[in-house]
Amino acid sequence: MKKQMFTLVSLLAAASMILVGCGTPSTAAPVAPAAPQVVVVTATPGPVTASQGGEIAVIVKTGNSSFWQNVQAGAFSAQKELKAQTPKLSVTFLGAQSESNIDEEINIVESAIDRGVKAIVLAPSDVTALQPAVKDAKDAGIPVIIIDSKLNGDPSQYTAFLATDNKAAGEACAKSMLDLLTKAGKTTGKIQVMSYVAGVGSEVGRVGGFNDYIKANSKFTLLPTQYSNSDMPTALNQTTNVLNANPDLVGIFGANEPTAIGMGTAIKNAKLGGKIVAIGFDGNSVLAGFIKDGTLQAIAVQSSFNMGYLGVKNAYDVGIAGKTVPAYVDTGFLMVTKDNIDSQDAKNVLY
User: Fold this and answer.
1) How many domains does the chain have?
2) How far apart are the C-alpha atoms of 307 and 287, rounded to whole Å?
3) 279 and 156 both lie in a single domain
4) Which of 94, 103, 134, 325 is the most buried (most CB within 10 A)?
5) Residue range 54-72: average pLDDT?
6) Neighbouring residues of 263: CB distance < 8 A, sequence distance ≥ 6
7) Cα gap 292→287, rounded to integer Å
8) Can you give the pLDDT at residue 42?
9) Which of 27-31, 100-104, 150-154 has the lowest mean pLDDT?
10) Which helix or strand (DSSP H or E) is residue 286 part of?
């Protein structure tokens, strides 16, 4: 009896296997398409992802300066090139109303995270306050490319850093100033630094590099740094007060675009162009004009276009194409004077 039962069970099992092997259309249908989908995605992740496109969010300190508008021009130039291979790619550009409005920039980053962008290119207005937002992006699987100002803290929270070597640029400005003062026969006197937002990564390197070089290589007295919060009228008023209070001032340094414009305007209004050594930073048409008319003797010009262009290119590579990108890219700077302002090198960075 046991042998008969075993035989019966075996026959039933064999029949069951035959039925499963043959299958019905309704049983096999969900299984058949699944295999090729997995194979395609695994075999060629780059092209599939790239063809789908997505948004790269470029978020800067403020949209209200020609420096950041030139970053925007670079970002959109990269978008135009990349759209040839990824038609659905979208590059958006947003900034706070002012560089000191840190909470607004944080909200812009969080909004980009919420809408699931593919990557973020970020110029942080504060090197500490933006850390949690960048961590939120990483936790959401969104790579962040930092431009202009290096973020404090754990560098593994972001993918890459693209910027001018601000310490080297600040030192170059200080060296230019000392060379010009030496030519004028001056070895002592007061030097004023007109800065923008205290604690911003670019400001720390730039002004720190300038101050350290002056202290190490001269006997000039550095006056307390003035901060304009990147507001041109504020910088103009501050510089006017400095000029009135310090008739023995021999040198002055404006550390970013709106600050240098305000500084140059005050020097021009006081008819002191060429009577004190004035060095600016960044290179829009107003600052270029100050070089040509002698109000300023030199400007350190970053390649802001490169920050936007290379920022988007790197964001695309890591966020959409799935490639590895360098951890640091130096976007460069050029000291522009009356002697070289008409050169092709200067034209490539002035805006």
Assistant:
1) 2
2) 20
3) no
4) 134
5) 95
6) 194, 235, 236, 239, 252, 254, 278, 280
7) 9
8) 26
9) 27-31
10) helix 285-293
